[in-house]
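User: Run a structure prediction on this.
Assistant: Running it now.
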Amino acid sequence: MFRATHRGMKETEQLFGGFVAAEIATLSETDLDALEAALALPDPDLVDWLMGRRPIPAACDAPVLRRMQAEVRRRMGEA
């Protein structure tokens, strides 16, 4: 949880960390493994993928990242 909310880039902390904080209790072991792998990725890439500015590359694609992306897009639509 700490690593998801203390990334170094405020946008990633809000997008990634916010999703993890809200959904951590519902995540499977597979989802948690995918999140762990995503924590090693550069913040600018994560922000671009989650906001839909660039597609998630096949090598990084995981259902939990798609869920996170959908939630970010839903929140952006509400703003």
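The chain has a mean pLDDT of 88.
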